[in-house]
UniProtKB/TrEMBL annotation:
<dbReference type="GO" id="GO:0106361">
    <property type="term" value="F:protein-arginine rhamnosyltransferase activity"/>
</dbReference>
<dbReference type="InterPro" id="IPR016633">
    <property type="entry name" value="EarP"/>
</dbReference>
<keyword id="KW-0648">Protein biosynthesis</keyword>
<keyword id="KW-0328">Glycosyltransferase</keyword>
<keyword id="KW-0251">Elongation factor</keyword>
<dbReference type="GO" id="GO:0003746">
    <property type="term" value="F:translation elongation factor activity"/>
</dbReference>
<dbReference type="Pfam" id="PF10093">
    <property type="entry name" value="EarP"/>
</dbReference>
<protein>
    <recommendedName>
        <fullName>Protein-arginine rhamnosyltransferase</fullName>
    </recommendedName>
</protein>
<comment type="function">
    <text>Protein-arginine rhamnosyltransferase that catalyzes the transfer of a single rhamnose to elongation factor P (EF-P) on 'Lys-32', a modification required for EF-P-dependent rescue of polyproline stalled ribosomes.</text>
</comment>
<comment type="similarity">
    <text>Belongs to the glycosyltransferase 104 family.</text>
</comment>
<keyword id="KW-0808">Transferase</keyword>
Length: 379
């Protein structure tokens, strides 16, 4: 008697913003393989970016197998037999020939458009909506990640929160992690992970950190903001309060431990925001800047969820600093904002833990997608 073949899934990804899109797709693919034993094929148009996150990937190969899943160059897609479930990440438009093959299958695959993360209320109404292809008749379901039970939830692997808690309960875990990075950090100085986009506010923020008069250990990954930090350091050669430690580009598998080993987080984009919430550390989010400040209402929408349980004064401290950081249309004196935020850190830290617990009660994104697929196939 032969065992049933594993459920198959194709995930299509075009790399738009360096590592955010492919980071989400890789996490999803790994979770489907590791937790559901699915046969997953990831079709990507930029394997160079994936190789930065997963060093074992060879960008020159048309097809390869890594960590239990198959990776294809996008150009190979027209020759692929469609899987039982097709995930189109972020409206990336799979090749027409592939869609035609989908339409020829009986039944056709479960087709999902995985949208970008948003906290805005309209995603609750759009999550689960179905669109029919005008020529092929294929039905595509829209799945919106989000922060409420009426959305698709967030990526969260089994065991992630237990691992984070165990790491933070171990007195030596953080120091051991920094030792593996070749760093010796001052014991009493907070470790601040500074992962941001380039911003005209960076010099003023560093000025505020310096004027606050307390030591900071700043962990600086390679980003477009790095030259701005380096220029500020060159202009302040004698200051000793702020120590900046350039980090190498870490594989995705190490990113969570980097967050767990830090005390304060400045994060950017979608994937880092989600992982920062699972890390349950005080954080400031650098939402992707858009024309005409269109990103600020999206930031406010996030805080309409994240604010639940914070006192009015702590919420004001959190949102004032985060909104100022993301509002590039005005000059900002960050000194009072930073001092007020630091004053409220005990409550903000406690809130980060309770917020993580609340989010963890919702189904995770992979579970939502699996349920969608099994519903289509009657499993």
């Amino acid at each position: 008697m032969h065992a049933a073949a594993p459920f198959s899934c194709d995930i299509f990804c075009r790399v738009i913003d360096n590592y955010g899109d492919i980071g989400v797709c890789w996490r999803l693919a790994r979770q489907l393989v590791d937790e559901y034993q699915w046969a997953v094929r990831l079709l990507v148009d930029d394997l160079q970016s994936l190789a930065k996150l997963v060093p074992t990937v060879d960008p020159t190969l048309a097809q390869q197998r890594i960590a239990g899943l198959v990776i294809w160059q996008w150009e190979q897609a027209p020759s692929a037999t469609p899987a039982q479930m097709v995930v189109e990440a972020f409206a990336c438009d799979p090749p027409v020939t592939y869609l035609q093959r989908m339409a020829q299958q009986t039944p056709p695959p479960a087709w999902v458009n995985l949208e970008y993360l948003s906290a805005e209320t309209w995603v609750e109404d759009c999550h689960g909506l179905v669109s029919r292809h005008p020529q092929l008749g294929l039905e595509k379901v829209f799945v919106f990640p989000g922060f409420s039970p009426r959305t698709g939830g967030l990526l969260r692997e089994k065991g992630l929160l237990a691992a984070a808690s165990a790491f933070n309960l171990s007195p030596a875990a953080a120091d051991q992690f920094w030792t593996t990075q070749g760093l010796t950090l001052r014991a009493q100085a907070p470790r601040l992970f500074f992962f941001t986009y380039a911003s005209p506010h960076i010099p003023a923020l560093l000025d505020a950190w310096l004027s606050h008069g307390q030591a900071l250990e700043i962990l600086l990954p390679p980003t477009p903001a790095t030259p701005q930090v380096e220029a500020w350091l060159a202009a302040h050669p004698n200051q000793t309060l702020l120590r900046v430690h350039p980090l190498p580009f870490l594989p995705q598998a190490e990113f969570d431990r980097l967050l767990w080993a830090s005390d304060l987080l400045f994060v950017r984009g979608e994937d880092s925001l989600v992982r920062a919430q699972w890390a349950a550390k005080p954080m400031i989010w650098h939402i992707y800047p858009q024309a005409e400040q269109a990103h600020l209402p999206k930031l406010a929408a996030f805080y309409s969820h994240y604010s639940q349980g914070l006192t009015a004064s702590a919420l004001a401290a959190q949102t004032a600093l985060n909104q100022a950081w993301c509002d590039t249309n005005r000059a900002v004196d960050f000194a009072p904002l930073w001092a007020n935020w630091r004053q409220h850190l005990p409550e903000i830290q406690s809130h980060a833990l309770s917020w993580r617990a609340e989010l963890s009660q919702q189904p995770d994104l992979a579970t939502v997608l699996v349920s969608q697929a099994y519903k289509k196939w009657g499993q």
